[in-house]
Amino acid sequence: xxxxxxxxxxxxxxxxxxxxxxxxxxxxxxxxxxxxxxxxxxxxxxxxxxxxxxxxxxxxxxxxxxxxxxxxxxxxxxxxxxxxxxxxxxxxxxxxxxxxxxxxxxxxxxxxxxxxxxxxxxxxxxxxxxxxxxxxxxxxxxxxxxxxxxxxxxxxxxxxxxxxxxxxxxxxxxxxxxxxxxxxxxxxxxxxxxxxxxxxxxxxxxxxxxxxxxxxxxxxxxxxxxxxxxxxxxxxxxxxxxxxxxxxxxxxxxxxxxxxxxxxxxxxxxxxxxxxxxxxxxxxxxxxxxxxxxxxxxxxxxxxxxxx
Length: 308
Known about the structure:
Layout: E1 7-12, H1 15-25, E2 31-34, E3 38-42, H2 46-59, E4 64-67, H3 70-85, H4 93-104, E5 108-110, H5 112-123, E6 132-133, H6 140-158, E7 163-169, H7 175-183, E8 187-198, H8 201-219, E9 224-229, H9 232-247, E10 251-253, E11 262-268, H10 271-279, E12 287-289, H11 295-305
Parallel strand pairs: 1-2, 1-9, 4-5, 4-7, 5-6, 7-8, 9-11, 10-11, 11-12
Antiparallel strand pairs: 3-8
């Protein structure tokens, strides 16, 4: 194992989404744990897919699809599977499959590699590949110019504004909607596909204490535990959980070391999450920010922070 062998990492995200992070961070840290801090509820149903397909085939004729999260992809895929399997609709099953393939032939704009991978895994089978764009764009602000360029080209070709379909969560940011509206190059329809809520702090506190126990049992003495936070909403669950463990003497911030307590430091996936941690009372000096929202960005930030 290379790097700082006496540090450990706790990733506060869904297990299936944190796997690539775990694999990479295990190469340079003694232990890696994953704790989910958010609950997601998918809102799309078969009727929503029927409406979208009808609009695309008869009225609206969408020009592109947009996703900024894996959960939106999963919500759409689940509802589409339900729609295609229904026996009592006005459209034959083979026709539904054909219309769905036609819909997925649209360009699909995504934020980041993880969302692109979710599209490939959940929307396409092994015999098909989508026109997925933006996998190198780690932020919506980076993707926005690419979308606007596409819309400008489409508008010149179609002689009217292209229609975009944005599948998003209830806590989506305004970067893309405001940017697209401000460009006057396209019309955007937003479909809230899932909701996000923080898990109960007590449950996360208990799981965090258990994770700390497993780290010590498996790895012995640990000099530092990195707590990696992936969203502002996650931060609002994690900080109270950490405070609860601080009061019990189980953990302490790096700059306020306490005998017998595990020393921790926080890492944020991006600027907005880092700002939220500070707003919640975390010392800004305790927060390391990833240079890019990816497993490589987090890994590099943790390694760099240990030597500064």
